[in-house]
Amino acid sequence: MAAGRKHREVAPLDYAGRWSLRAWVAGVVVFLYLPLASLVLFSFNDSRRTIRWEGFTTDWYGRLAHDDALISAFANSLTIAAVSTLVSVVLGAMAAIALWRYRFIGKGVFDGMVTLPIVVPEICMGVAMLVFFGTIMPWPRDLVWPFDLGAIIIAHITFSFPFVTVVVRARLASFNREMEEAARDLGASELRAFFDVLLPHVRPALVSGALLAFTLSLDDFVITFFTAGPNTVTFPVKIYSMVRFSVTPEVNAASTVLMAITVLLTLIGMKLQGKDIANTEPR
């Protein structure tokens, strides 16, 4: 045996445990992603029947590109997601910093109210928003796009910004307050210390929170279904209306496009988050 080389005997039960664990993980992965893979595959099916493969075609994606109603719904979803994400990041970051830094009367109640939309079922949130906008705060139906999306945007902000708060607050738990105090001792104002010291530390959390808020808003159906007006159809609601008649390759193609956009945004967010973490690590 070569010097410095060690061999460790592994019992047969250890091998069996490893292979059983790998088989279990592989089974879970197949169970989770096989339906998505079949959806993408049958979006290229040259037949309106989704249960039988009859050839490869991209005609369904071409039909989506010429479907004005679907494009309008997609534009509504992007507008709602962009505006709600921007507002959610600001509100979520402010709430997280307030809960992390300050002590005030009713802090526990405020903390519970912030996280309440996370645990409340979406069906309850949707009904509550429907009652609120329908009776307490009715919106005019003759507003110009995108202002007619105001009710949906407010509803999406309500359930999106708590997720940003949780993510940013978790990131703030690892912040060394002495760094901010050192910046203040060196003459930096409170605002300058925030932008130069605290903000770079929480930037990865802001990116993660923004990505989470955007995907939640883009994919939401339940709350949007209750708060949308007759002239404000979003992409998930449009897909649902298409599925009510039959599941066609056109529906699969629309779902594939939505899934591809979500995956692409996730990859971009992970890339940006990795760069921010690398820049904030001590060298």
Q: Could you describe the 3D structure shown?
A:
This protein has 283 residues and is mainly α. The chain has helices at 12-42, 59-65, 68-101, 107-119, 122-136, 150-172, 177-185, 190-219, 222-227, 235-243, 249-280. The longest helix has 34 residues, at 68-101. The chain is globular, with a radius of gyration of 24 Å. The protein starts with 11 loop residues before the first helix and ends with a helix.
Over all CA atoms, what is the radius of gyration?
24 Å
Q: What summary fits the major beta sheet? A: none
Strand count = 0
Task: Summarize model confidence as the mean pLDDT.
Answer: 80
Oligomer: single chain
Key traits:
about 280 residues, mainly alpha
Short description:
The protein is mainly alpha-helical.
